[in-house]
Design goal:
With about 775 residues, the chain is α+β, with helices and mostly antiparallel strands. Helices cover about 50% and strands about 20% of the residues. It is built from 23 helices and 23 strands. The strands form three sheets. Strands 15, 16, 17, 18, 19, 20 and 21 form a seven-stranded mixed β-sheet that branches. Strand 15 and strand 16 form a beta hairpin. The chain is globular. The mean pLDDT is about 80.
């Protein structure tokens, strides 16, 4: 019996090549795109869940609050971890991770800068279950000057040396020798903390209040969180916060800690000074909606075309009923055909996914290897879609046709209103989604274009940002290096100061007014006297720093926003307190020292050429090689590490770039699939109306009227879909724009434009079949089959 169903289905595909091909390929594209999105979403949501104890692992963060101050810092004070076990119960293990700027010396002349070496407490290996190739988790980090390397890092340093040979080797890091005590497998890509080397923490190098430790806690059991948070709050109130207030001399600042679960850490975007890039939950939600919409459109196409194609087989159904076929047999036949169509679509989708592998990996870094792909939950999702879509499409047709009377089914003019209503409803949903996707793409593109091209109040082109090394004689070397660079023809200026877009120094300034002290929360940055000139920042009032004429260490520059917050008619010459007392010597024009996601906040610029970790160099195109050569002369033990300011500022909007790329790509897919479905439905519609149109032509109907009769139902569904989608999509995008401090105004013409695009595409798609029937000889149209 099932063999007969299969043969009938294959014959039906061959007999209706166009509509069958469109429905199968459209569904395949939709399934492939949805699977790609599902894989990406699954990867983002799987961060750190490969650790067997992830449900019990938390990382502490620090909140500084008080006097309009609310800063959420990723690191904690280094002295927190040793005290936790004394004050807090339900803790199994606690460990600190401290970033370590490392320069590894290999051979006589080769130095490699490593940004992923960390000093850690030995207990870290008991919190995170690492995959050891050689070495012991119990002893590897138990002695000073030991180091554990990842497999790829060991291979980078020692080529093809065996693990046993590595265990007798040493590495020179920051002029000190470290013994290799273990090799572990590389950290998985879906890990929030990526490291390449672990070194025992040397507590004596830090003060207890240094905020440079990332503190991980392993609870006794997952249910211990409530008790842990209660004890942590008591710890902050009675020990940590009073101790830090006394150390800082700020009794009004309250400091407390938050516990962030390892599963949620990847999406904690509000933390300052974190050690890794974070995911964006809004992007995940957007991608989920896109995947659902795209799959919905592809499924609607498939169902529409399958139902419309099946209803033409009314004579076949009538004959089979007359010769004794029952409803169950008819229903099974259509269900089998529908599932066969869906199975073919799924097979094609797998092929499309494999072809998309190189492009997908270059864009997301996530592998789609088919062998691993089939083992994942994606495979379950794939075949779940196969059965849901296949059974839904087949069951509607099966029970609809199986229930009709055989006499009615054998009539040449057999028709039902129910399928037409069903088609119109599905087409309305389909084109509503397509219109909304186009509108969202246009708005996101406009906003991204605005962010990338808005004037920031300073020059960002041709600015080279060089990371400066830490060393005892850093100041002397940096000053000599700066003086040398100023003598190079292709170097237009050199400055030491904070890198725009990467400022984390926060605090409060104290303003004395009528014997009262007023605290104002501010951001702050260090800079030398060349900083404003190199970046082209304008001075509105007063003067720049001038080290030759005065002691600039007791002077401040402030921005317009802070000048407006201060209650002085003229702030120049007034005293301000921030890390010591100083005089305001100038007011600079507001500039966007943070990304455009944030409003311009009050800023204090402090003169200091020693506290800066970056050098900003304004260059011409040929200066890079000269700067690299000079670096080797002044810093022979440290590899040069540089970037360009314009590129770094652009990278701040990577989430928006991802959104516009994905919206554009999937909007095009949505339109393509919608037009394919419309084309197929138009073909079926024309076939059903061929004789009627022939009669109209014989009776003298004009060609335009014929075209109107053929396409009016489809175009009416498109118009209703556009009308439903535009107001809803417009409100969603207005809400999305409001999340930005600086954004474009919503352009209502975009509603007209996006709706017009969909309508024109629908018109063009349906025109083809209208023209075909108009050109057909009415005599041919009126012939009986």
């Amino acid at each position: 019996m099932f063999n007969n169903y299969l043969i009938t289905a294959l014959r039906n595909i061959r007999r209706n090549k166009l509509s069958s091909g469109i429905s199968i390929f459209g569904l395949a594209v939709g399934i492939a795109a949805a699977c790609l999105m599902f894989r990406y979403i699954q990867f983002e949501l799987s961060y750190d869940k490969h650790y067997t104890q992830h449900e019990r692992i938390y990382r502490l963060s620090t909140v500084l609050s008080g006097n309009n101050r609310n800063e959420h810092l990723a690191p904690t004070a280094i002295g927190v971890a040793p005290q936790l076990n004394r004050f807090v119960k339900d803790i199994s293990k606690v460990a600190r991770v401290v970033p370590m700027g490392a320069v590894v010396k290999l051979g006589e002349f080769q130095n490699i800068r490593q940004d992923k070496f960390y000093q850690v407490d030995p207990s870290i290996v008991e919190i995170f279950d690492l995959d050891w190739i050689i070495g012991s988790a119990e002893t590897a980090l138990s002695t000073p000057y030991a180091i554990v390397l990842t497999e790829s890092t060991a291979r980078q340093f020692f080529d093809n040396a065996s693990p046993e040979e590595l265990m007798t080797s040493t590495l020179q890091i920051n002029h000190e020798l470290y013994n290799i005590r273990g090799i572990i497998k590389d950290v998985p890509d879906n890990s929030d903390w990526h490291f390449e080397g672990l070194i025992p923490l040397q507590n004596e190098k830090y003060a207890w209040y240094d905020f440079n430790a990332f503190t991980y806690v392993l609870l006794d059991k997952p249910t211990s969180l409530a008790n842990f948070q209660t004890d942590l709050q008591a710890f902050d109130q009675h020990w940590f916060s009073p101790k830090l207030q006394k150390e800082w001399g700020t009794p009004d600042t309250y400091v407390y800690h938050k516990a962030i679960s390892l599963a949620n850490l990847h999406f904690s975007n509000d933390l300052l000074g974190d050690m890794s890039d974070k995911g964006n939950i809004n992007l995940i939600i957007a991608l989920s909606l896109i995947a659902i919409f795209l799959l919905a459109i592809a499924s609607i196409n498939f169902i529409n075309l399958f139902v419309a194609q099946s209803i033409k087989r009314n004579v076949e159904v009538g004959i089979r009923k007359v010769v004794g076929a029952n409803k169950t047999q008819l229903a099974l036949q259509y269900l089998c055909e529908s599932l066969l169509f869906a199975f073919i679509s799924t097979a094609i989708a797998l092929v499309l996914i494999q072809f998309a592998e190189p492009l997908w990996f270059s864009y997301t870094g996530i592998s789609l290897n088919l062998q691993n792909f089939i083992k994942e939950e994606v495979f379950t999702f794939l075949f779940l879609m196969l059965f849901v879509v296949g059974i839904f499409a087949g069951s509607y047709t099966a029970f609809f046709l199986a229930s009709c009377h055989p006499v009615n089914a054998l009539k040449a003019n057999f028709s039902f209103s129910s399928p037409r209503t069903f088609h119109k409803a599905l087409q309305l949903i389909q084109f509503s989604i397509a219109t909304g996707m186009i509108l969202c793409t246009m708005v996101v593109y406009s906003q991204l274009n605005y962010l990338l091209n808005k004037q920031l109040g300073f020059d960002q082109e041709s600015i080279m940002v060089v990371s400066l090394p830490e060393s005892p004689d850093k100041t002397e070397k940096v000053n000599k290096f700066k003086a040398y660079l100023l003598g190079i023809n292709d170097v237009e200026g050199v400055a030491l100061g904070g890198k725009p877009g990467d400022l984390y120094l926060k605090g409060t300034v104290i303003q004395d007014m009528d014997g009262k002290s007023i605290e104002i929360p501010v951001n702050a940055m260090y800079a030398d006297e060349s900083y404003l000139k190199v970046l082209g920042i304008s001075i509105l009032e007063g003067n720049n720093f001038n080290e030759k004429e005065c002691n600039c260490h007791t002077q401040f520059l402030i921005n317009e926003s802070l000048s407006q917050r201060l209650q002085w008619d003229n702030p120049l010459g007034e005293n301000l307190s921030f890390e010591g007392d100083g005089e305001i010597v100038g007011v600079v024009k507001d500039f966007h020292y943070q990304s455009l996601h944030h409003a311009i906040e009050p800023l204090v610029i402090i003169f200091n050429s020693e506290m800066n970790s970056h050098m900003l160099i304004k260059i011409k195109s040929k200066a890079v090689e000269s700067i690299e050569s000079a670096w080797q002369t002044f810093f022979p033990d440290t590899p040069v590490q540089y970037s360009f300011l314009e590129q770094e500022l652009t990278a701040q909007y990577s989430t928006e770039k991802h959104m516009i790329n994905l919206f554009t790509f999937f909007s095009l897919l949505t339109i393509l699939i919608s037009c394919m479905g419309l084309f197929g439905m138009s073909a079926i519609n024309v076939q059903q109306k061929t004789k009627a149109m022939g009669i109209h032509q014989v009776m003298g109907a004009r060609k335009f009227y014929i075209f109107y009769l053929v396409s009016k139902d489809i175009l009416l569904s498109v118009v209703f879909g556009i009308g439903v989608s535009l107001p809803l999509s417009g409100l969603i995008m207005i809400r999305w724009l409001s999340d930005f401090e600086y954004h474009v105004s919503f352009n209502w013409l975009q509603l007209v434009f996006s709706g017009g695009i969909v309508f024109i595409l629908a018109m063009v798609t349906s025109c083809y079949h209208g023209i075909q029937i108009i050109r057909l000889n009415p005599v041919s149209s009126l012939r009986n089959e």
